[in-house]
Write a structure and sequence with these properties.
The protein is an alpha+beta fold and about 240 residues long. The chain has 10 helices and 7 strands. The chain has a 5-stranded antiparallel beta sheet, with helices on both faces. Strands 1-2 form a two-stranded antiparallel sheet. The chain is rod-shaped.
Length: about 240
């Protein structure tokens, strides 16, 4: 295979990869890569076909590469660096989506873990999204305060479904556990409840994780549980 045939085979394969259409001599000449006649290009393509590197699907069509042609292309002609910029751009976009999805999965798993540890509602805001995961509503609904006061249970459910994200925007949160106990200003219609919150970070994205339950909750137990789960999320950030 001479130098022009090598260049021609590489050009045909590049074009076919891009278009999935048979490549003719006219298209090759339009690329500006070849300074020769259309007849010369056709002659060289015919030679490549005779040697098994190309094939012609139809008599009047251009050529497409064969498996032998692809093997030579990969071994001798392919230039990965020519596609590096495009690949890197696509990779960075998908990489960020990948990590965001993983961040959200970690938060969801942490909330699930805490809800299994405590008899109250566990919740956490989700990095990259204006939403809050929560679990454990059934936990608090079993508490006597809620069984004796269906309206309170309804208000808590409404808060979790519609207003928890806004509520967390109003409270002061840092890496210490903070307590909002029967707070009229913060808790509004659920003043007979308490809320505990602390901050966590995942890849420099700030989030809030906490506990919501009756004012009668076991603060000591919940504080330890909240600290442990928040530290678990923080350890992901350090890792």
């Amino acid at each position: 295979m001479n130098e022009r045939q090598s260049k021609l085979l590489a050009a045909i394969i590049d074009q076919f990869i891009e278009t999935a259409l048979p490549v003719g001599s006219k298209k090759l000449l339009e690329s500006g890569e070849f300074i020769c006649s259309s007849a010369t290009i056709r002659n060289e393509m015919g030679q490549l076909e005779d040697e098994g590197f190309l094939e012609q699907p139809h008599i009047s069509s251009g050529r497409i590469p064969t498996a032998i042609g692809y093997r030579m292309y990969v071994r001798d002609f392919m230039k990965p660096s020519a596609r590096e910029k495009t690949v890197k751009k696509r990779f960075e976009s998908l990489r960020e989506q990948y990590f965001q999805r993983k961040d959200q999965e970690r938060v969801y798993e942490a909330v699930t873990l805490m809800a299994r540890m405590i008899p109250n509602v566990a919740f956490a805001s989700v990095p990259h999204k204006d939403r809050v995961y929560y679990m454990g509503l059934s936990n608090v609904l079993k508490q006597p305060e809620f069984q004796s006061n269906p309206l309170l249970a309804s208000d808590v459910a409404e808060l979790l479904e519609k207003g928890l994200s806004d509520l967390l925007d109003q409270v002061e949160v840092d890496d210490k556990v903070r307590y909002y106990i029967g707070d009229e200003h913060i808790l509004g219609n659920i003043q007979s409840c308490s809320m505990m919150v602390t901050e966590y970070k995942v890849r420099d994205q700030r989030g809030v994780i906490g506990v919501l339950g009756p004012m009668r909750m076991d603060y000591a137990y919940n504080t330890v549980a909240l600290d442990m789960v928040a530290n678990l999320l923080r350890s992901y950030d350090k890792g």
